[in-house]
Design goal:
By secondary structure, the chain is an alpha+beta fold. It contains seven helices and twelve strands. The protein has two domains: about 80 residues, Glutaconate Coenzyme A-transferase (3-Layer(aba) Sandwich), CATH 3.40.1080.20; about 180 residues, Aminopeptidase (3-Layer(aba) Sandwich), CATH 3.40.630.30. It is about 25% helix and about 25% strand. Strands 5-6-7-8-9-10-12-11 form an eight-stranded mixed sheet, with helices on both faces. The chain has a two-stranded antiparallel ribbon with strand order 1-2.
Length: about 260
């Protein structure tokens, strides 16, 4: 369906139906809702997850209103963050498909505001070792407040890319890569993590390659990163990335400066 009506003045996705509105399906029968802004898969999701999925495919100019109305009704978190306007729109043009060196097909896409449940599953799947290598600390909890840092993205300053396998109905996040731009140096701090049960399958290399491609398109000059000295797999991925790398050892952590070539 089109997300709006009457020359984009009315949203077809609304907080509630008006009194006496005709209904031909109950909500449990609807599995997909498709608009020009994407696909919301609703089957098996709770009310909050369904609301966030529908808001993410509403017309951008109505999303702030839908967020506020959903908060008032107690449908979504009362502290749910949102970035209005172009900066917060989902950049569909960044979606791509890649195949790793081991033959694994990856769907690489930007994170969506409705990805909190999938990301929570991903982070809880990581071992203490992987968490320590990614965050330089062992964090056992991943509450809504922390997850918002990963899904509420100002795409003009930051990029978060998910490596996804499976169908739209059963997506599994196997990798998360991100960079945040330092405008003064025209570089970006990069980081990524891969599910323990999918490591050594080339996922990290593909994600780094794609993040590098996006960063170069933005005119950035290179990446920076902090990597624990004993994290040899991560160092190996960076060393194969085609950068001119400078390392500085600081209390057991490498401070990497990686200049792009060409």
């Amino acid at each position: 369906m089109k997300s709006t009506a009457v020359n984009d003045t009315i949203s077809r996705i609304v907080p509630s139906l008006r009194e006496s509105a005709g209904i031909t399906l109950n909500r449990g029968d609807v599995r997909y809702v498709v608009t020009e802004y994407g696909i919301a898969y609703l089957h098996g999701k709770n009310v909050r997850e369904r609301a966030m999925s529908l808001i993410s495919i509403a017309h951008p100019k109505f999303r702030p209103w839908l967020i506020e109305e959903a908060k008032k009704r107690g449908i979504i978190y009362r502290d749910q963050a949102f970035i209005p306007g172009k900066r917060g729109e989902y950049p569909e043009n960044l979606e791509t498909h890649r195949t790793t060196k081991t033959g694994l097909h990856l769907f690489l896409r930007p994170v969506k505001i409705s990805d909190e449940p999938l990301l929570k599953d991903f982070f809880y799947s990581l071992s203490d070792r992987s968490l320590n290598r990614r965050f330089l600390s062992i964090r056992k909890d991943m509450p809504h407040e922390r997850l918002q840092d990963f899904v509420i993205i100002d795409y003009s300053h930051e990029v978060v890319i998910l490596g996804v396998i499976g169908s739209a109905e059963n997506e599994l996040i196997v990798g998360v890569g991100q960079y945040g731009i330092d405008e003064k140096s025209h570089t970006a701090e990069v980081a990524f993590a891969v599910r323990d049960d999918h490591q050594n399958r080339g996922i990290g290399q593909e994600m780094l390659s794609y993040l590098t491609y996006l960063a170069k398109k933005e005119g950035l000059l290179g990446f920076t990163a902090e990597v624990m000295i004993d994290n040899k797999p991560m160092l190996h991925v960076f060393e194969k990335g085609g950068f001119d790398i400078k390392k500085k050892n600081d209390a057991g952590v490498y401070d990497l400066k990686m200049a792009f070539r060409g």
